[in-house]
Design brief:
It is a single chain. The chain is α/β, with parallel strands linked by helices. It folds into 2 domains: about 130 residues, no CATH class; about 170 residues, 3-Layer(aba) Sandwich (Rossmann fold), CATH 3.40.50.2000. Helices cover about 45% and strands about 10% of the residues. The protein is built from 12 helices and 8 strands. The strands form 2 sheets. It has a 5-stranded parallel beta sheet with strand order 6-5-4-7-8, with helices on both faces. Strands 1-2-3 form a 3-stranded parallel beta sheet, with helices on both faces. The longest helix is centred in the N-terminal third of the chain and has 22 residues.
Length: about 300
């Protein structure tokens, strides 16, 4: 949810549609815990209390950053209550960009909270792959994708992660994506193809499994492709998505990047490739996610809100 956008809507007295990529509301029926160590199973009241406490702390910091723009627009200081709680209480539309096939909508949320499904852009339809990549894909068994997307890290960490990823490919072929962290560096074995970038909707269906950081978008793309995951989370919500995939039997246990080793990654990839039940569950949820159109649902909700403007 974007408080600055909501501030503008408040100033000009316009309807506001909020959007988020995670379940940013407390619920008794699940706990979306963005912590490296997954919490124990808690009773419903504790799920709600833990989430509220976790969310309240950063909001108290962020609300101070809103003072200048709110003063500029002659608005009072932002309340201490969480922005998303106030928005939902005012019956403003909140769109959550993930699939209920992975995480069902909480029974406690009001009707103005809508889980749309992931909002994919069809970039692959107009993308032409480099000839070297096409030759690599055609030259042997289906490879595994390894990449950590927008995660940027220092040079020593990039070298360590590359060393952890590349040797484990002795078990299978791989496409190693540089990402923002610049993983593709130094010598790589011939079973590993170094890739600068490629649309997930083109690449992932051509992979055997997806090793990724657990970002919301990459998680959705892996599920849409019907592929099992191996998740190496770095920050905040990535830990929650990683734990959720493991709980649903769509991935082995998470491998936090700080402690990642070649042996641990190799074992997890072997599980993702060889565990037939895991692969079947991934294929099944892939069919459901493919049939959803989160972008169209979001557009419909936005247009509905606009039409309802007094």
């Amino acid at each position: 949810m974007e408080p600055l956008g909501a501030t503008l809507a408040e100033r000009f007295q316009l309807p506001c549609v909020h959007a988020w990529w995670t379940p940013m509301l407390a619920a008794r029926d699940f706990l979306f815990a963005s912590s490296e160590t997954a919490p124990p199973r808690l009773p419903g009241w504790a799920n709600r209390a833990v989430f509220l406490a976790f969310d309240q702390a950063p909001w108290l910091t962020f609300r101070r950053a809103l003072r200048p723009p709110r003063a500029l627009y002659e608005l009072p200081a932002a309340p201490y209550t969480l922005a998303q709680r106030r928005a939902v209480a005012r019956c403003e539309t909140l769109l959550l960009a993930y699939s209920e096939a992975l995480l069902p909508r909480s029974r406690e949320w009001p009707a103005n909270v809508e889980t749309t499904g992931w909002r994919f852009l069809e970039d692959g339809a107009s993308w032409t792959p480099p000839s070297e990549l096409e030759r690599f894909l055609a030259a042997g068994p289906t490879p595994t994708y390894v990449g950590f997307g927008s995660m940027a890290f220092r040079e020593p960490d990039a070298r360590r992660l590359t060393r952890s990823c590349a040797p484990s490919r002795r078990l299978a072929r791989a496409v190693l994506s540089a990402g923002w962290g610049g993983l593709v560096r130094g010598h790589l074995p011939p079973t590993v193809f170094p890739l600068d970038e490629a649309p997930h909707d083109w690449l992932f269906p051509r992979m055997a499994a997806i090793v990724h950081h657990g970002g919301a978008g990459t998680t959705g793309a892996a599920l849409r492709a019907g592929k099992s995951s191996v998740v190496t989370p770095f920050i905040v919500d990535q830990f929650a998505w990683a734990s959720l995939l493991a709980e649903r039997g769509l991935a082995p246990a998470p491998l936090p990047h700080r402690t990642l080793t070649a042996d641990a990654l190799a074992a997890a990839i072997k599980t993702a490739l060889d565990n037939s039940a895991l692969r079947e569950r991934a294929a099944a949820i892939g069919s459901t996610v493919q049939a959803e159109n989160g972008l169209a649902r979001a557009v419909t909700a936005i247009e509905r809100t606009a039409r309802a403007r007094p």
